[in-house]
Amino acid sequence: MPRAVANMTPPKVEGLKETLKVLGRFDQTLRKSFTRDFKEAVAPTVEAAKANVPTVPPLSGWERNWNDRPLWDGKEERRIKLRLNTRRARRRNLEKGLVYESVGTVVVQATQRGLSVFDMAGRRNEPSSVRGDLMVKNLNDRWRVASRVMWPAAEETRDEVTRNCMPIVKRAELEAQRILAMKTINRG
Fold it and tell me: Which of 12, 42, 82, 156 gets the most CB atoms within 10 Å of its CB?
C-alpha cells in the first residue's frame, strides 16, 4: 500500500525498536503490556481517522459489486488498526541509506480495501486508466487530495500522541536496562 508523504516530520525516538526487541526476547508479558500501552496512547489518531471516514460511499457505484463484493461497506470501512512494527529495513534499502522506506514503530493502518482506495487513490504519478483518472479527479474534487483519512488524522493528533507515548518510552527503556542488568549480574 502506498504511503502518504507530506511536510510533517514524524516524532523520532531513538532506540525504541531495539528496546522493544530486548523486552520481547526476555519478557513476552512485559512486551505485550507495552503494546497495549502504545495502543491506548495512539488511540486519538485511530479515532480521528475513523471520524474522517465517510459513512456513505464516497462515489456513486462503490456500493455495487467489485469482484463479487461491494467496494464500500459503511460498517466495515471503519476498521483501522494499530500495530507495532520493529522489523528491520530491507537490505536493499539499508544499502541506499533508507531512501525508500523508513521502518516505523507504531503503524496505524486501514484494513479494508475500500478505505485504502479512498484514502490513497491518486498518489501514483502516472495515469493508470481513463476511468481511474476520472475516479481520482472526482475524489479530489469532492473530498481532498490523498491521503484523505490517515495522514490528516496523524497530523491532527501528533502532539497529543507524542505526549502520550513519551512516558511509555521512558518506562520501556528503564525496564530494558533493568532486565539487561539482571542478566549481566546473573552471568557474572
Answer: 42
